[in-house]
Structures are given as structure tokens and as C-alpha cells.
């Protein structure tokens, strides 16, 4: 019983909310992009590749505006 | 008996494949401010209306404007209207973009997104074709160059079929 109550409380505590399409204006700003500067990112990637002999694994597709 | 059974099967297949002519739902009514006053959806009755929800921060929304301007120009002698509903919270951002375009259709402002909520939009831009009886016919989410011709054909068809 205690476990069920704890589980239900955890579910109630979840902060999941849907961002409506018209509220995505802040997310669509260039500064909100996961890779805000392509040049900086390319340099960082180059250094990382040189040091670690591995690359990639960063960023996601899309700009966050939910357009496409 | 075998023939009867086969005929029944064929009949059943035919019945299942009869298209269902569903009634289209009525489009939500709205009354929104524009640059010149107020736009009421009742004013649009009898016309085929392309409603577009857009915002200045959404690039595909802005990309759709040249096409919408061209469509309005192309069908200007027919009962066709385009209404672009802006959802910017800060109207000055929308004004900047509007000033940069030669827009030939009304722009309404819905900063609280009350009408967008009624239309249950899923992404930006979202567009709807509302027929001459005020019913929602087609919904489009997003804007792609590859779907422009298909949209134009649909508009043409809905104008001709009326």
C-alpha cells in the first residue's frame, strides 16, 4: 500500500507540460539552439576529435519551434 | 450455392468500399482586431477562406507569405479570401514583418492565442480551408514548397465545386 501511494505521489509530482505551438517563441530564438554558434561548435569538435579520436554525438535536428 | 456465396462476398466488399460522405464540422467563429478595425468570421460567409496562423519568429510561416500573396492575386476575381492570424505576443515584431511585404489580404491579431486554441493548432504555421458554408474542410500543419501545387489545386477544386 505504502509503495502504491509513493508511486502515485511520484506521478503527481511530475512536471510534464505541453508547450503550445504559439508559446514556442522563446524556444525559436537562435540563442536557444543547442548549437548556437556553428563556427564555435566546429572548432570545439575539431579539438575534441584531435584529443579523443572521436567525434559527433552532439545536437539534435530542428530549431525547437515545432514548425517541421 | 457456390455462385450465391461468391456473389454475397462481392456484394459485401462493394458495400464496405462505399465512400462515407461525412459532414464537415463547422469552423470555430471568431472576432479579432485588424489594422483597420475588427474582422468577424461572419463577414467571410459565402467565400472559400484560407486561414493561416503565423508568428514572426517562425521561419516557415514567413516563407508562406509570398505564396499566399500570389494565391490571393490569382483568385482575386473569385469568392476566395485569405486571413492571416498573427500570434505574436509583441505586435511590433509582427508589424516589422508586415511592413516588409506587400500583403493583399487581412491580418488579424490574436496575441492571447484564444482563436488558435479553438482551432486546436498543432504547429506553426497551421492553415485551414473553410468552405463557403463555413465548414472546416482541410487542415495543413507546416509549410513546404513541395505542397504548394497540391494546395492550389485544392483551392481551385473547392472554388469550382461550389
Overall spatial form of chain A:
flat
Can you list the strand order of the major beta sheet of chain B? 5-4-3-6-7
Q: What is the 3D form of chain B?
A: elongated
> Mean pLDDT of chain B, as a whole number?
89
Largest interface, counted by CB within 8 Å of the partner chain's CB: A-B, 13 and 21 residues
Question: Which ranges of chain B are low-confidence, i.e. pLDDT below 50, for 5 or more consecutive residues?
Answer: none
Low-confidence stretches of chain A: none
What series of H and E elements makes up the topology of chain B? HEEEHHEHEHEEH
How helical, in percent, are the residues of chain A?
Answer: 25-40%
Task: Work out the helix count of chain A.
Answer: 2
Multimerization state? heterodimer
Overall pLDDT level of chain A:
78
What Rg of chain B is obtained from the alpha carbons, in whole angstroms?
A: 20 Å
- The chain-level structural class of chain B is alpha/beta
Q: Biggest sheet of chain B, in brief?
A: 5 strands, mixed
CATH uppermost class of chain B? Alpha Beta
Indicate the topology.
The complex is a heterodimer of chains A (68) and B (162).
Chain A: H1 2-13, H2 38-52
Chain B: H1 2-16, E1 31-33, E2 38-40, E3 48-54, H2 59-63, H3 65-74, E4 80-86, H4 91-99, E5 107-109, H5 114-118, E6 126-130, E7 136-141, H6 148-161
Parallel strand pairs in B: 3-4, 4-5
Antiparallel strand pairs in B: 1-2, 3-6, 6-7
